Amino acid sequence: MAPQEPVADIALIGLAVMGQNIILNMNDHGFVVCAYNRTQEKVKEFLETGAKGTKVVGATSVEDMVGKLKKPRRVMMLVKAGDPVDAFIKQVVPFLEKGDIIIDGGNSEYLDTIRRVKELSEKGILFVGSGVSGGEEGARYGPSMMPGGNPEAWPHVKDIFQSICAKSNGEPCCDWVGEGGSGHFVKMVHNGIEYGDMQLICEAYNIMKDVLGMNHDEMSEVLNEWNKGELDSFLVEISANILAYKDKDGQPLVEKIRDSAGQKGTGKWTAISALQYGMPVTLIGESVFARCLSSIKDERTLASKSLEGPDAPKFDGDKKAFIDQIRQALYASKIISYAQGFMLLREAAKEEDWKLNYGGIALMWRGGCIIRSVFLGNIKSAYDKNPQLENLLLDDFFRDAIHNCQKGWRKVVSTAVEMGIPTPCFSTALAYYDGYRSERLPANLIQAQRDYFGAHTYELLASPGKFVHTNWTGTGGNISASTYDA
Q: What positions does the entry give for NADP(+) binding (predicted)?
């Protein structure tokens, strides 16, 4: 049998909704895609329904799929993270040649991507780990894409990726992130920030509902109003729509939903990475813990019957003014969340030797993805002005914004505390801000405590870098332990 003529520009493995939508998006932009799925029936069904009348071709096996690809062959996977990615790589590699490209478009952990780039590079295969954000609609009409990995692959995938991604003022929300696992790391931080944004909006909703006693139409109206200003974002927009949505009986559907939030792990990975890199990404951490707390619903129900809160009076202040203070708390906390997220990116880049373009990352998130917002344009401007910016809070725009919001932010947090309303993210954001702006923190006492009980040594303000030990009790001796960073 004569070998088949290569017809496809790229192959895509994994025909769940995201995979199908990316294929149709690529087809719309003139690329011929070869669709493959472990379950053959799914390929047949897709070709007869969603892909009917398109240039999409199907494959009956991995070998058949690779045979239909033009060189260098580009194989993209949209499959579940972890073992399934390694399993497909193992199946595909025997049919590839040096210079061919494998792309993982799933939510893989960045450490796995670092490993895969290295292992495949040794075989001459170029590996790309690309974050893809925007959900089903983004995949179909323009996602945000964050590719990283082997830089030799970028010229061969750039045209496809930048054609199908979202655009912000005509600029593609996709650019090369960097080497190794940087693309998936950036996507992980994006998802962590998404956790934070969602929790912050939930805290604003909780305060409006339980402190001010607002009904759902009023709250929806407030969010719609906020969405016309600096909080203009996809998540505020959909939250306004959710609050206005009525069930068949005319009651707000959102109040019938069990208050136990799920998670797929990327927020948790961000919090773990923050601990590993020693960065105080407190807001994302609290947003993950807030979901964990929500998930022990039965325990909370039991606790609510026996644990008392404050005897707080009903709110008797200026309702309109307090609503604006909630907006200020939301905006200021959001600034803190992004400042922390970019701190984590900077530290990871330093440790992993990635050359990240922070303004470019903000642009990648400016359209197509779940955290898309006007706000990201301000972040891009901050890094365009100063690519070496150490913290977003030190940029004039964000510093002034925090200063303008500070009084209202503090009022909201203190009112919530007095009335027993949990605001983990509003509160931790404020604590971080107050800590970051403090020239002195009480960690001197921690160092003294460590030296007292474990002879761990400490530095004196007058001679930083020189570690000394004190025999605090007169009986402990003068031998000190070695100092280290855990």
A: 14-19, 37-39, 79-81, 107
